[in-house]
């Protein structure tokens, strides 16, 4: 298994929360105070009671109404966390789409982001599968294209990290199971540095179908 690796990081964005509260206000009815003072004077009430009334003690006031705007938080959705995989891609065969879905299901189950399909990689993967059938070999190094990395570069594909998985089997499900049961191939499928995938499945060869997975990041 040949792989080049380089690390990269991602960032999550959360919108800031906001909250507002109304400021209460209070009004004093002056005519009511004057009437009560006059009544106390007529009844010879003490000066302390009159002073308390003028100071506002003992006077009742309605409680002000208060309102609060609820705090809101907005977070960008995470496809990996929700288990969402890539949508069906135009140009893939049914088998290729099925294998993409299986790969991304494994990634999301392990907390990784799903891989996006790159049709350039689909093309190189199909070329490799067809070449193995035509020339009767099963190897990462092609007599036609060289290494998978040479092949990608010859098609104008640039990358920081890349890998290739090969399988021969009769069905997508059996091929996927065999790849996941192999430590090196599983490591490619669950490599957090990869962002894009291309799968090429061609009918033929001694196994029934030839599978090539190309990864880049």
Automatic annotation (TrEMBL):
<dbReference type="InterPro" id="IPR014044">
    <property type="entry name" value="CAP_dom"/>
</dbReference>
<dbReference type="InterPro" id="IPR035940">
    <property type="entry name" value="CAP_sf"/>
</dbReference>
<feature type="region of interest" description="Disordered">
    <location>
        <begin position="56"/>
        <end position="90"/>
    </location>
</feature>
<protein>
    <recommendedName>
        <fullName>SCP domain-containing protein</fullName>
    </recommendedName>
</protein>
<feature type="domain" description="SCP">
    <location>
        <begin position="100"/>
        <end position="215"/>
    </location>
</feature>
<feature type="compositionally biased region" description="Low complexity">
    <location>
        <begin position="63"/>
        <end position="81"/>
    </location>
</feature>
<dbReference type="Pfam" id="PF00188">
    <property type="entry name" value="CAP"/>
</dbReference>
<dbReference type="InterPro" id="IPR014258">
    <property type="entry name" value="CAP_domain_YkwD-like"/>
</dbReference>
């Amino acid at each position: 298994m040949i792989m080049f690796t380089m690390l990269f990081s991602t960032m999550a964005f959360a919108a800031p929360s906001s909250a507002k509260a109304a400021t209460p206000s209070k009004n004093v009815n002056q005519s009511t105070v004057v009437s009560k003072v006059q009544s106390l004077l007529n009844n010879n009430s003490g000066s302390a009671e009159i002073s308390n009334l003028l100071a506002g003690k003992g006077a009742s006031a309605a409680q002000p109404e208060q309102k609060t705007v609820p705090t809101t938080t907005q977070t960008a959705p995470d496809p990996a966390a929700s288990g969402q995989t890539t949508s069906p891609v135009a140009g893939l065969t049914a088998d290729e789409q099925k294998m993409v879905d299986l790969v991304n299901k494994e990634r999301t189950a392990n907390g990784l982001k799903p891989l996006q399909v790159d049709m350039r990689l689909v093309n190189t993967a199909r070329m490799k599968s067809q070449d193995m059938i035509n020339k009767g070999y099963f190897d990462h190094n092609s007599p036609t294209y060289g290494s998978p990395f040479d092949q990608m570069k010859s098609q104008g594909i640039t990358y920081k990290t890349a890998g290739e998985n090969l399988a021969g089997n009769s069905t997508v499900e059996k091929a996927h199971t065999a790849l996941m049961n192999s430590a090196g191939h599983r490591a490619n499928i669950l490599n957090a540095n990869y962002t894009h995938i291309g799968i090429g499945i061609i009918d033929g060869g001694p196994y029934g179908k030839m599978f090539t997975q190309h990864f880049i990041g």
